[in-house]
What does this fold into?
Amino acid sequence: MNKGIILSIIAGFTTLTGMLFTINFKSKKNIDKIITISLSMAFIVMILVSIFDLFIESLNILSNKPFLSVLLYILINYTIIYIILHIKPKNNKKLVEKGELYFLGIFNMIALLFHNIPEGIITYITTNYNLKLGIKITTSIIMHNIPEGISIAVPMYYATKSRKKAFIYTFIASIGEPIGSILPLLLFKNLVGGVYIGYILISVAILMINISIYKILPKIKTNNKLDIIIGLIIGFSLFIINIFLT
It folds into this structure.
């Protein structure tokens, strides 16, 4: 099987780890602590991978292209991704405030399903261009898929008292990654190489930075700053280890 598809499957199904937090979970303080640490890890790893791996690699590939054209591409990409990530359903805040956990779980499932599809595309294309980059991207995706899985499984479980339903909805979100990895193979496999990969890596880096700043960072809410520091240190350490291992 293609390496990009394998890594996408691994990354996608780590979303199912959210089910672990539906088993004998009694303290909300503990789950908040785990979510804060894992989100902090995901934040720092995605930022570091985007800047020091993806951007540097893309600029090397596009070194012969006019600087202004590359800069314009970056600005256009950033604007488009920023707009897409800031589209929110009008009733989302109302649902959360009302404590309607069941609908919150469904909303998170739908949102993450469509969020995971482009991540699968990214993983496939990057892995087939450069396995080392693919592994680094997969690592960062895994880190934020874990708290995303929690955001589906926990509300669904506490709303329905059914681990089966929590599993089904979390599983549906997780398959977005494998689905996304198949699309490049079917639709635009010719783009995996040449100058196209340089532009693709820029888009990936911008997407990951935007997700980190506008989606992950606002969710890091805690009164214990030590949890954030622990997450950042672990994430930074994993990035350094990844450099030596790959």
